[in-house]
Write a structure and sequence with these properties.
It contains 18 helices and no strands. By secondary structure, the protein is mainly α.
Length: 445
């Protein structure tokens, strides 16, 4: 019975959602172990290190992910070869440039007083190189809507990491240096797997063309700014808290954000499945369908998130106890979680408005929008700490960039094809009812 039900549910949406769900569960398990195995200050340093690492990685992922999927999805076989080979060239060039920049910084290690920053400088280059094949493999399988393969890539990387962390926890060898070794092992072994199995398409490198490279570059120079600036929201908060309130406060703040994965899971999943659909509709010149697809995904996710957000607000204290342990129960973590979940229902509007702007070839508007969001985020965070003197000020400030993103995104899309935000919610409600009926019929058959 269970096997038959899974077969009926097996489609790109379910696979993408399941994949992101599995990865979030593994990530949560990993955090539960780390929060118990390391002191509060060490957790704060790890969060800082990882945030900076992922921020710098945005130069590559922001430059390539959206551009690759946009030009690859629905193209001819020869076009796919050209785009993939050109993407390998651009990705390799970005990796090489950043590694070269990392070399002189490595010699400054003895003069760096911040241990998290020192760890980043020491390990960034090798981790960045090790993750290149698996990153490009993820772009390829996502563009081909092979979300089963995307799940395999992510599961392998996270799985290796978490197994090694569990071993360290049981052998009482968990420390920041060993955690980085485990992180590097997950990235390197996953990349080796994607090369051997052929998902990375590294052999297509020879199919690159100057025109393809130029096309990716022209689009990517705007999309990288959008992605980089977007990721700077979280990283700027990390830096502000780390340097103004200390690593212990950062550990508590980060714990309070953990159940935002409830929001991020459907956002990442439906963004992955929706982008190829949006790109195909735009490439066909059908403006109405582009907006209809955007309204369907945005509205559906918003409606589905309502009960989840209410549950998290009610059960925040229980969640903090489970994830962080008893030492975090009487901290600000639970209320931080409640604050974030309160305005999380705006996230689908912000995320899909931005995604659609990229698809309709308006990355410049998206970039300018994100710059305003970043300025609003940093200003509001500093003001929040000035007024409150604690992490509540930073958490409350999070609503400012989201509102800016929704308003500017709405303006930009209305220039492309007029619609109302009310229509998004109505469409989402209708889609949610239809989905419930569909899967209920699948279940009872």
């Amino acid at each position: 019975m269970a096997f038959e039900l899974l077969q009926k549910l097996k489609n790109k949406h379910f696979l993408s959602l399941a994949g992101n769900g599995v990865m979030s569960v593994l990530g949560m398990l990993n955090m539960i172990i780390l929060y118990r195995a390391l002191p509060v200050a060490s957790i704060g340093m790890w969060v800082f290190f990882l945030s900076i690492l992922l921020l710098v990685d945005t130069f590559r992922s922001g430059f390539l992910t959206t551009a690759f999927i946009k030009f690859y999805a629905g193209s001819s076989e020869n076009r796919k070869l050209e785009i993939t080979g050109s993407a390998w060239f651009v990705g390799g060039a970005i990796t090489l440039i950043l590694v070269i920049l990392n070399v002189p910084a490595y010699f400054l290690l003895p003069y760096l007083k911040n241990p998290s920053l020192a760890l980043f400088v020491e390990w960034f280059g090798i981790i960045y190189v090790a993750s290149l094949p698996s990153f490009l493999a993820s772009c390829v399988v996502q563009a081909e809507q092979r979300f089963d393969q995307l799940l395999c890539i992510r599961f392998l990387s996270q799985g290796i990491f978490i197994v090694l962390v569990i071993i360290m926890a049981f052998t009482q060898t968990a420390n920041l240096q060993n955690i980085i070794y485990a992180y590097l092992a997950g990235a390197a072994l996953t990349s080796l797997f994607t090369i051997l199995i052929g998902w990375s398409k590294i052999s297509w490198f020879r199919k690159r063309t100057k025109a393809g490279i130029r096309e990716i570059y022209d689009f990517g120079k705007f999309s990288v700014g959008t992605t980089l600036s977007s990721n700077l929201f979280g990283t700027s908060n990390t830096m502000i808290i780390n340097f103004m309130l200390g690593p212990a406060a950062l550990a508590i703040f980060n714990l309070g954000q953990r159940l935002m994965e409830i929001v991020e899971i459907p956002l990442r999943s439906f963004a992955a499945t929706g982008m190829p659909e949006l790109s195909a509709a735009y490439n066909a010149g059908d403006k109405k369908t582009v907006i209809d697809i955007m309204k369907k995904y945005t509205g559906l996710i918003t409606i589905v998130l309502i009960p989840a957000c209410i549950a998290v607000v009610i059960l925040a204290d229980v969640a903090i106890l489970i994830i962080g342990g008893s030492k975090y129960v009487n901290t600000e973590a639970a209320n931080i979680m409640r604050l974030f979940m309160t305005f999380a229902l705006l996230y689908p509007l912000d995320r899909f408005f931005g995604l659609t702007l990229d698809v309709i070839h308006q990355p410049k508007i998206n970039f300018i929008k994100v710059l305003f969001m970043l300025a609003g985020s940093v200003s509001a965070s500093f003001l929040g700490i000035f007024l409150t003197g604690n992490i509540y000020g930073v958490a409350t400030a999070g609503v400012v960039p989201t509102l800016i993103g929704v308003l500017v995104g709405y303006w930009g899309l209305n220039r492309f094809y007029p619609f109302k935000i009310r229509d998004v919610l109505v469409t989402g409600y209708v889609e949610a009812i239809q989905m419930v009926k569909f899967y209920w019929m699948k279940f009872v058959q």
